[in-house]
Design goal:
Helix content: under 10%
Oligomer: single chain
Shape: globular
Number of helices: 1
Length: 147
């Protein structure tokens, strides 16, 4: 898992961030979709995405208390000022990856129809942050409670 985090940090995985000003609102390049080396223009300065200072990612898995993956949970990263920075849905294996513009304190929230809402304050440094979370069943979805 640590090797994957280092790879993500070096290669800046594809992250589509909607509604953010400036460079943060654009799609970052992914190595699998970039032009081959021969087709790339040669320039003396580094590529634009590599000059983004402090940008990093928060990633991990969303699981149930029994350890099963939670697919289609929606995770949101919020700034201390209340601005939504990134929002994604988990994949079938429960994995997610969120883009953080810089290190600092953020609020991470997760919601799913079958589970209780989950929120925590997290501290992001200059390196990718692995943050796995466990969701509890919603009382409304509980078989012991009549609908």
């Amino acid at each position: 898992m640590e090797a994957w985090a280092r790879w993500c940090h070096r290669h800046k995985p594809v992250v589509l961030v909607l509604g953010l000003p400036g460079r943060l609102g654009r799609r970052l390049h992914h190595p699998a979709v970039e032009a081959p080396e021969a087709a790339r223009p040669t320039r003396a300065e580094p590529p634009e995405e590599e000059s983004v200072s402090g940008a990093t990612v928060v990633y991990g898995f969303v699981r149930t208390q029994e350890g099963a993956p939670v697919a289609d949970a929606v995770l949101t990263l919020v700034s201390p000022g209340g601005e939504q920075l990134d929002r994604v849905a988990t994949l079938a294996d429960g994995s997610y990856i969120l883009s953080a513009p810089a290190g600092g304190s953020y609020l991470l929230g997760a919601v799913s129809r079958e589970y209780e809402p989950w929120t925590r304050h997290i501290m992001v440094g200059g390196e990718p942050l692995v943050h796995d979370l466990t969701l509890s069943p919603s009382e409304a979805a509980s078989p012991s409670r009549p609908a």
